[in-house]
Amino acid sequence: MKIAIDLDGVLADASKIWMRILNDRFNIKVDKSNVDQWDFWKKIGISKKSFEEVFDDAWKEWQSIDETEIGLKENIDEIKDFGKTDLVTARNKKTMDDVMKWLEMTKITFDEIVVVDENYLKGNLDYDVFVDDSPIQVMEIANLDKVALVYDQPWNSHIISRNNLIRIKNFTEVISYIKDSKFRNQ
Ligand SMILES: [Mg+2]
Questions:
Q1: In the chain, at which end, N or C, are there fewer CB atoms within 10 A of the end residue's CB?
Q2: In angstroms, what is the span from residue 181 Cα to ligand 1's centroid?
Q3: Integer-rounded Cα radius of gyration of the chain
Q4: What is the whole-number distance in angstroms between the Cα of residue 134 and the centre of ligand 1?
Q5: What is the pLDDT along the chain (186 residues), one digit of tens a residue?
Q6: 186: CA distance to ligand 1 center in Å?
Q7: How far is the centre of ligand 1, averaged over its atoms, from the C-alpha of 9 (Å)?
Q8: Are residues 103 and 39 in the same domain?
Q9: Ligand 1 centre distance from Cα of residue 7 (Å)
Q10: How far, in Å, from the CA of 65 to the mean position of ligand 1?
Q11: C-alpha–C-alpha distance, residues 123 and 130, integer Å
């Protein structure tokens, strides 16, 4: 089994930081509950490019970026026992230095770190199971007959579970799914 784990919104929660920058830069007032759609920049009337710049700037403050839940390092280590487990992140490559520092700080390690362009559809990569929070990514992964585990976030709450598209709340549920699927395939 090959497992691809996303970074932003799955392991790393930079939302406090990018919301602060967004609110300061555009003189608006949004909080996480307002971010109920993936392309929410449309809702607040800024361009995708402007939002991506805010996001990249947020990663410069990598030391303040939270982990989405406690015990990530241990959970990822456990997942590695079931197959090759890679971090697969679609992003601006210039943020990767900060990402590497964050990974070092959190001590979360992977078999491999794979970086693809911001708009690349990860489903095309050779993995069996993906953990991701992007509605665009998970729909494509499921359409390609691979397994998409949808990490619960306000911007993907409209995605409904079906066969190979499964909503999960945390990494305990990811591990249960992977354990069960290994058992099913034996
Ligand atoms: Mg993500």
A1: C
A2: 23
A3: 16
A4: 5
A5: 999 999 999 999 999 999 999 999 999 998 877 888 888 888 888 999 999 999 999 999 999 999 999 999 999 999 999 999 999 999 999 999 999 999 999 999 999 999 999 999 999 999 999 999 999 999 999 999 999 999 999 999 999 999 999 999 999 999 999 998 866 765
A6: 31
A7: 5
A8: no
A9: 6
A10: 14
A11: 8
